[in-house]
Amino acid sequence: MNDVPPETIRSASRRYYSVRRTFWRFFIGGIFVIICVKELDQILQNRVDSAIRLVISFVLAMAFLACMIVVFVASRRSQRFRCPRCGRKFIPSIGSTWTFSDAQCIRCGLGLERRYLRNGDAEA
Fold first, then answer.
1. pLDDT for 4-51, tens place per residue?
2. Is 73 exposed, middle or buried (0-12, 13-18, 19+ CB in 10 A)?
3. Which member of 29, 41, 84, 115 has the greatest number of CB atoms within 10 A?
4. Calpha distance 88→108 (Å, rounded)
C-alpha cells in the first residue's frame, strides 16, 4: 500500500470521528426526546388542557424527527467516507456485519484510531 502522510491520517480521523459523534449524539438525543414526550404527557395529563398537551407533544415530535434526519445524514456521510490510503469506501454499505464502532478500513486495513486525534505523530 502507498504511504499516507501523518497529517492526512489525522485529518481523516478528525472527520471520521466527527461524523460518528454527530450520529451518536443525535441518536441518543432522539431517544431522550421520546422519553420526554412520554413523561410530560403523564405529568400534564390532569393538569393542562389537552390542546396544550397536543402542542407540546407536536413540538417534541418535530424535535425527534429533526434528530432522526441528522442521524440519517450522518449515517450516509459515514457510508460515503473514503479511506485516505486506498481511496475506496471506508465502511461497507447497510446490511453487512460491520459495526459502527469499527474504525478500520475494510479493504486496506488502515485504522483511524483516536490516538490520531492528538497532535503527536501518526504512523500508518
1. 888 888 888 888 888 888 988 999 998 998 888 888 878 878 787 878
2. middle
3. 84
4. 9
